[in-house]
Structure prediction request, 203 residues.
Amino acid sequence: MKTTTVQNTFDDITLWNNMRESDEKSFSTLFEKYFSDLVSYGNSLSPYSEKVQDCVQEVFIDVWKYRKTLQSSVVVKAYLLSSVRKRIARLHERDHIFRKSTSTDSIAFRLEFSVEHELIDDDDYATKEKVAHLNNLLNDLPPRQKEALYLKYHQGLTVEQIADMLEVNYQSASNLLYRGLLTLRKEWKGTLSLITLLSSGTF
Prediction:
């Protein structure tokens, strides 16, 4: 599977700007399009699934409430993911689950990674063992490295967008990706492309 960079599709741009002009159908379409992705990402940051869903719904409520003031040039998916991350950080502060802080540093990525078995031949036991080892390596990475890889290869964000979400500069985001990949590449000796595995894996 070829990795793709998140860009606004024509549909996203149209839906977003129609929504900004109070088109309820466009708003509903955006909600249906991104709700599950946002909940999945939110669950990676908090073990409280019901509260995560509340956070995602609150993000959409705010989007609609403040639609007239929103910029027209945002990358919709990146904007929504970032909004969910910030809201969950505030949730952690309010509930005193983590240290009292409004910084998104107060939350840690917690989902487990798994390469889809459909990519591997049923009889290729050696590759299966290597992939299992790769999964363990990735899941043992520091949370920030793991989250950066998730945002890059699972959600398709650019390095700049990842930097904005994690509230670090571009070089720091690039370093997170580089260090994570370096750790994996030192150990991965399989015939399948490491990037292909990361892009097609599930969290």
Summary: Residues 5 and 156 are 5 Å apart (CA to CA). Residues 10-106 form a domain with the Rna Polymerase Sigma Factor; Chain: A fold (CATH 1.10.1740.10).
